[in-house]
Amino acid sequence: MLRIGVMVSGGGTNLQAIMDRIEYGTLKNCCIATVVSSNSRAYAIERAKRGNIPVTVISRKNFDSEEDYDRALIEHMKKYRVQLVVLAGFLSRLGDSFIQEYRNAIINIHPSLIPSFCGKGFYGIIPHQKALEYGVKITGATVHFVELEYDSGPIILQKAVEVLPDDTPETLQKRVMEQAEWVLLPEAIRLFSEGRLEVNGRKVIIKN
Ligand code: GAR
Prior knowledge:
With 208 residues, the chain is α/β, with parallel strands linked by helices. The protein has one domain (2-109, 142-157, 182-206): Formyl transferase, N-terminal domain (Rossmann fold, 3-Layer(aba) Sandwich). 35% of the residues lie in helices and 25% in strands. It is built from 6 helices and 9 strands. The chain has helices at residues 13-24, 44-50, 66-79, 96-101, 126-134, 169-193, and strands at residues 2-8, 30-37, 55-57, 84-87, 106-110, 138-145, 155-162, 197-200, 203-206. A 7-stranded mixed beta sheet has the order 3-2-1-4-5-6-7, covered by helices on one side. Strands 8-9 form a two-stranded antiparallel sheet. Helix 2 links the parallel strand 2 (30-37) and strand 3 (55-57). Helix 1 (13-24) crosses helix 6 and helix 5 crosses helix 6. The longest helix is centred in the last third of the chain and has 25 residues, at 169-193. The relative contact order is 0.15. The model has no long low-confidence stretch (mean pLDDT 97). Glycinamide ribonucleotide binds next to helix 1, strand 5 and helix 6.
């Protein structure tokens, strides 16, 4: 049984997608051992509670340094014997020690086709605003392994989503979530849990 630690900061719809797939039995041999929220007001906390998943708020603002924050997060993940860390709309920065501790075992969902509309400052609704401003016809979502640089790690899965002429950032965000994010993130977890992801330099090989 793969023990997952899900890290959140907001609405938690991606957390919900994982919880649903586990409950429906389409994501097997996985359990969410802990949910960590960086934000005490995140609606994701309610979702975790409703699913009887232990949830803890660990906010960067309560720590003096990035190292202290990392140390607390590592300690927490160890306590819950987490084997895979999933960033599901987690908006705080993780430091080098956390990333090294869980090397190739932290995955993130990003709401664009990386390397477009990503990097520092591109989170939540912003990638969709920027995609519409740029006038792209296709956007999407990406799941990738996490490295220190924002949105820079090896790409696991991507899915394209059409931009429609009358889209607003909100309608586009909703379509990207429904058509791409809520599908891709559980799928990447499934592949990880089956030991099918091999990182080779920048590339992720999906083994049969
Ligand atoms: C999602 O769209 C996720 O891709 C994005 O935040 C949203 C969280 O929604 N993540 C980032 O922008 C990370 N750079 P949720 O809380 O409803 O899952």
